[in-house]
């Protein structure tokens, strides 16, 4: 996986851009409500997420003239469609940012249930066409939109963003309602944000481990390093039969000795081990081993 970057705006469709803004901001909000500027992040995620949802089924309803409606007005649009039971053309051809509305209702507690499909009615897959299909599986995506919680959140974030006293603080119910919008198939980038965040965390930890191990091996001195190199084989299994089935010692990418004790290798079969160096203490995680192997595979693809 390459380092995550913000995509250049000139290359984006407005639908992609809205989905991207929802995903990245909602993910940050989900990580903690005490982050600075959480009200602005919540507001950005909510406005963009609702705009995507409305436009994906009823293009144009997200606009007031040439401007995108505010979150409260977009909730009004969805409530209106729920009141009328507005479905869309069953023979319409959905796309990446277009869906077919199979059903939409709003219950007494203000929760809208929006059922959508990314298939035209005649193109929906049959259970027999889908591996491991279970009885309660469905070709539809169901999105729960808690209008009460989201309207309450708007009342909290709006004053803060406009220099007025807050009317309270965001709580778990507001965040849950925001994250629930991500069940809509056009807002599927939330998982990517989570993966990117984990990628950056793994690599930041690995950089720290490398730096710490490099400092440590300098303190050891040549004699101690040589002693540890000689003892490295002792860490492998004594029985030759057991040793034949386990990972051999790997070369350490920090001290460059063949002293990394690994209990497994990468999932791609490149042979990059996950383990700890007996000399310098550097530990390569399974995630880093897999990522380095993936990079090697990509760089060594056969030429056409």
Q: Determine the fraction of residues in helical runs and give it as a percent range.
A: 40-55%
Number of strands: 8
Along the chain, the helix and strand elements come as HHEEHEEEHHHHEEEH
Alpha-carbon Rg, integer: 26 Å
Q: Total number of helical segments?
A: 8
Averaging pLDDT over every residue, what do you get?
Answer: 88
Overview of the molecule:
The chain is an alpha+beta fold and 304 residues long. The protein has two domains: 9-188, no CATH class; 196-299, no CATH class. Helices cover 45% and strands 12% of the residues. The chain contains eight helices and eight strands, in the order ααββαβββααααβββα. It has helices at residues 14-31, 38-57, 71-84, 147-161, 172-180, 190-231, 240-245, 286-299; strands at 63-64, 67-68, 100-106, 111-117, 141-146, 260-265, 273-277, 283-284. A three-stranded antiparallel beta sheet has the order 3-4-5. A hairpin with a 2-residue loop joins strand 1 (63-64) and strand 2. Helix 2 packs across helix 4 and helix 4 (147-161) packs across helix 5 (172-180). The chain starts with 13 loop residues before the first helix and ends in a 5-residue tail after the last helix.
Quickly describe the structure.
The chain has helices spanning about 15-30, 40-55, 70-85, 145-160, 170-180, 190-230, 240-245, 285-300; strands at about 65, 65-70, 100-105, 110-115, 140-145, 260-265, 275, 285.
């Amino acid at each position: 996986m390459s380092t995550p970057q913000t995509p250049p705006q000139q290359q984006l469709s407005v639908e992609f851009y809205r989905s991207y803004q929802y995903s990245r901001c909602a993910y940050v909000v989900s990580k903690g409500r005490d982050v600075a500027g959480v009200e602005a992040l919540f507001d950005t995620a909510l406005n963009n997420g609702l705009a995507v949802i409305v436009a994906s089924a009823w293009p144009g309803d997200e606009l007031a003239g040439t401007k995108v409606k505010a979150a409260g007005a977009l909730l009004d649009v969805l409530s209106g469609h729920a009141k009328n039971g507005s479905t869309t053309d069953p023979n319409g051809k959905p796309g990446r940012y277009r869906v077919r509305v199979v059903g939409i209702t709003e219950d007494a507690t203000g929760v809208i249930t929006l059922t959508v499909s990314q298939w035209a009615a005649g193109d929906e897959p049959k259970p027999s066409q889908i591996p491991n299909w279970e009885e309660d599986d469905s070709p539809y995506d169901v999105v729960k939109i808690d209008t009460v919680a989201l309207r309450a959140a708007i009342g909290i974030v709006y004053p803060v963003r406009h220099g007025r006293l807050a009317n309270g603080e965001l709580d778990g119910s507001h965040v849950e309602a925001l994250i629930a919008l991500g069940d809509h198939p056009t807002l599927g980038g939330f998982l990517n944000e989570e993966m990117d965040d984990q990628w950056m965390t793994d690599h930041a930890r690995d950089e720290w481990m490398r730096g710490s191990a490099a400092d440590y091996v300098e303190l050891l001195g040549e004699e101690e390093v040589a002693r540890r190199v000689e003892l490295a084989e002792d860490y492998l299994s004594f029985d030759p039969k057991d040793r034949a089935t386990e990972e051999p010692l790997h070369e350490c990418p920090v001290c460059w000795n063949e002293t990394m004790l690994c209990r497994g290798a990468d999932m791609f079969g490149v042979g990059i081990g996950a383990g700890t160096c007996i000399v310098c203490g550097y530990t390569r995680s399974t995630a880093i081993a897999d990522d380095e192997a993936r990079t090697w595979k990509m760089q060594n693809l056969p030429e056409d």
